[in-house]
Each structure stands twice: as structure tokens, then as C-alpha cells.
Write a structure and sequence with these properties.
By secondary structure, the chain is mainly alpha-helical. The chain is built from 9 helices and no strands.
Length: 181
């Protein structure tokens, strides 16, 4: 399947609708979808109509897939510097996902995992702060902060393990059966 057809179908456009939107004839769109490479004005008009980069229409499908997975891996790894900052480990990947238009299931899963993990970490923190008696280790807040250390390490492991799996199989090793976004 051609990159033009893939991108056209993502927007639920018919060839006729794309023709109207871009000013390119239906016949030219058909030729490009059957294997011809768009050039010049045609390339620019179609890319603008689909709101994508021109390279997405002319790159081979393998290159486009490789680019897609490198962006997904970047979204995953962008959580890493922010594991200590609640919500930044969600916001930064989310910003990248929207900026790079990577609305695929793997990117959504990555962000869903970070949302769930942040909620889990905060619940652990508050449960320790509220329920742990300060007889053994001193201040409850200190103990609650120490309790975050294992959750941070596990989150780092999940991010790195998923990055390795994206490189290897283009899938996530740790994933949810649902998406939060």
C-alpha cells in the first residue's frame, strides 16, 4: 500500500475528497497510489492537504515504518529524564506524540503506562505517609520519600525494557490490555 493511500485513509478521505482538498486530479492520485512517486507541486499540494511532511509521501514504506518506530522509541525514552518529576513523565511524551503526530496504539500504550505508574507511585507515597507508624524509621515524610525509590527504579526498568523490545520486535514488552488515552 502506498504512503499516500495510508495517509489518505487515516483521514478517512476518498480519492475524490483528497482531489478537491489538494487541487490534484483523481487520476494523478490513483497513479501515485499505484506506485508512482509524487514530485514538485503535486508532492507539496498532497502533503499540505494531508497535513504531513513531504518526506512521508516519498519515503519507502520500510523507511516510514523505521521512522515511526524510532519516534515511538523516542516517546518512550522521553519519560526517562522525568521519572522523578510526577506528571512530567507523562506530559513530555504526550507533547512529543502530538507534535510528531504519532497517534498509534504503541505510543498511546507508552503514555498509558506512565499515567498508571504515576498514579501507583503517588498512591504508595500517600499510603506510606498516612499509615506507617514513625516508631521504626523516624519521620513519616522521609519514609514516604524513601518508598518512592523502588517505584522509580521499576519505572526506569519498564522504560528501558520497552525501548529494547521496540528495537527488537517493534512491540512493547510491558503493555496494558487497555489504553487510558
Amino acid at each position: 500500500m502506498s504512503n499516500l493511500k495510508i495517509n489518505r485513509e487515516k483521514l478517512n478521505l476518498t480519492q475524490e475528497e483528497l482531489s478537491d482538498k489538494s487541487g490534484i486530479s483523481v487520476r494523478t492520485i490513483q497513479r501515485i497510489e499505484s506506485g508512482n512517486k509524487p514530485k514538485g507541486h503535486t508532492l507539496k499540494a498532497l502533503a499540505k492537504a494531508l497535513d504531513i511532511d513531504e518526506n512521508e509521501l516519498i519515503e519507502s514504506r520500510d523507511t516510514a515504518l523505521e521512522l515511526k518506530y524510532s519516534l515511538v522509541k523516542m516517546i518512550n525514552l522521553s519519560s526517562l529524564p522525568f521519572v522523578l518529576i510526577p506528571l512530567a513523565n507523562i506530559a513530555i511524551p504526550l507533547i512529543i506524540m502530538f507534535a510528531k503526530k504519532q497517534f498509534n496504539p504503541i505510543a498511546k500504550q507508552i503514555i498509558s503506562i506512565q499515567i498508571l505508574w504515576t498514579i501507583f507511585s503517588l498512591v504508595v507515597f500517600f499510603l506510606v505517609a498516612i499509615f506507617v507508624d514513625d516508631l521504626f524509621l523516624g519521620n513519616k515524610l522521609d519514609l514516604a520519600l524513601v518508598s518512592l525509590f523502588p517505584t522509580i527504579l521499576i519505572n526506569i526498568f519498564i522504560i528501558l525494557r520497552n525501548a529494547a523490545e521496540i528495537d527488537k520486535t517493534q512491540k512493547l514488552h510491558y503493555k496494558l490490555n487497555f489504553s487510558l488515552i
